[in-house]
Design a protein that fits this description.
By secondary structure, the chain is of the alpha+beta class. It has a domain at about 30-70 and about 105-180: NADH Oxidase (3-Layer(aba) Sandwich), CATH 3.40.109. Helix content is about 40%, strand content about 15%. The protein has helices spanning about 1-10, 20-30, 45-55, 75-90, 95-100, 120-145, 160-165; strands at about 65-70, 110-115, 150, 175-180. Strands 1-2-4-3 form a 4-stranded antiparallel sheet. Bound molecules: flavin mononucleotide. Flavin mononucleotide binds near residues 31, 32 and 152.
Amino acid sequence: MIVGSTVLIMTAQAGSIDPLSSFETIAAQRRSSLRVDPDNAVPDELIDRLIAIAATAPNHKRTFPWRFRIITGDARADLGNALAQDLIEASQPATKVDKARSKYLRAPVMIAVGSRAGDDATMSAENRDAVSAAIQTLLLGATAAGLASYWSTGAAMTSTRLREFCRFDETDTVVGLLYLGWPIGDPPAIERPQPESLRIGSSTQNP
Ligand SMILES: Cc1cc2nc3c(=O)[nH]c(=O)nc-3n(C[C@H](O)[C@H](O)[C@H](O)COP(=O)(O)O)c2cc1C
């Protein structure tokens, strides 16, 4: 299968369709961006489709470890207030507390993504890997649908208040809080270094 596709790409005639190019475009278009319209709702059906797409991610031992929580409307302010309380208790400055209160209002929909614990440390780590793969799959789907997205982490990930707000279990790991919304601008361009890659073994081009 893979060899067949590769041959097709390598031998594509001018004007013929490169089967990888549309996915390549989506992957390159996916950016972390908060330049979204907070007042333009994302349809529930679209969010549900994106979550179903996310759940196609590979997961070792078929543990299906992901847990999604869709946070919209006033619940975004409730979440911000909960996390602001953490900062008040940690004696953080008022500016930081105020920012926490309003930060989730920047997008019309937030998705908290949790990972279930496994039977042992290895399974828990692999579950988390699978959830990260699911998040990226969701972000690529969002990009394909024309949405802007932003994966955030930080102190909120270990907040008991966040876990309780999301009805996650004590043993779950929170892997991200995703902002989703319709774009109102583009993020600044990003320079990506060439990824390190090394061919080990005989080259297919010089047998
Ligand atoms: C696990 C993970 C956690 C992240 N957490 C944050 C975050 O808390 N705040 C933030 O500004 N960006 C966060 N990002 C986004 C990265 O900063 C972003 O992916 C990086 O700058 C590359 O930009 P791009 O996503 O537009 O390609 C996170 C990304 C990942 C994969």
